């Protein structure tokens, strides 16, 4: 077992993948982002660049350090790079189809000692581990969005995860400036989403039932609790995830969620209102990522 996981291939350059790449690079890790096409690579580069200003404004890293870290990140369409790194960090779309496809593609290239981690927020490690040849090397390392502000790293194994890999994952999280939060028993939603999902689902239910509008629901919560309202939280999470949550609840037979999912797709996702990352979601956002409230 290596003392330190120093080289990382991030599979998927979406919002979390791009943030993670910059976070890891700033803390001295050798980082590459894998994308399936040159187009996906270009999008990943744009996302990483978008995080330049927040990291300069909101962290102790200066412009030079952030620029150096961004320049150090490599981009590749070669999945075989998975055989050259200590850690493969999977950040593809939160669907069973996308995750199954990436693990099947990774499998022939992984060495027995390579640690593989998913950043999934809903799929259990035990559901994905059988897709790999070396199941003991598989673990979940889950981050929330805006990791430079919210450095939580939930670490969860599956029954076959080697204890040393669980320890390596916690050590890695600490090395890249995150706070490791060990989870000792598999649970969909981990700790954070087990607490958060009922909160935001209640807000979506109020909205979907026509009880009130998102901004009034938020204002009610913020006046009393002095913390972000649920729809501002959903903007941080991102509309794609909101849509996935609603579709999941629709599949479970929860009334009204299918119709609400259609609203989110039509009025938000298809309009480019993807949340804070896009500058617009339930709210519009200024250049500092602050909600513009009437």
Characterization of this structure:
With 294 residues, this protein is α/β, with parallel strands linked by helices. The chain has two domains: 7-183, 3-Layer(aba) Sandwich (Rossmann fold); 193-278, N-(1-d-carboxylethyl)-l-norvaline Dehydrogenase, domain 2, CATH 1.10.1040.10. The protein contains twelve helices and ten strands. The protein has helices spanning 15-26, 38-50, 52-58, 63-72, 96-106, 125-128, 163-175, 192-208, 214-225, 230-237, 239-251, 257-269; strands at 7-11, 30-34, 74-76, 87-90, 115-118, 138-143, 152-156, 179-183, 284-285, 291-292. The longest helix has 17 residues, at 192-208. The N and C termini lie far apart (55 Å).
Multimeric state of these chains?
single chain
Proportion of β residues? 5-15%
- State the share of residues found in helices, binned by percent: 40-55%
DSSP strand tally: 10
* Sheet with the most strands: spatial strand order: 3-2-1-4-5-6-7-8
| CATH 4th-level superfamily of the largest domain | NAD(P)-binding Rossmann-like Domain
Sum this structure up briefly:
With 294 residues, the protein is α/β, with parallel strands linked by helices. The protein contains 12 helices and 10 strands. The chain folds into 2 domains: 177 residues, NAD(P)-binding Rossmann-like Domain (Rossmann fold, 3-Layer(aba) Sandwich), CATH 3.40.50; 86 residues, N-(1-d-carboxylethyl)-l-norvaline Dehydrogenase, domain 2, CATH 1.10.1040.10.
Write the layout of secondary structure elements.
Layout: E1 7-11, H1 15-26, E2 30-34, H2 38-50, H3 52-58, H4 63-72, E3 74-76, E4 87-90, H5 96-106, E5 115-118, H6 125-128, E6 138-143, E7 152-156, H7 163-175, E8 179-183, H8 192-208, H9 214-225, H10 230-237, H11 239-251, H12 257-269, E9 284-285, E10 291-292
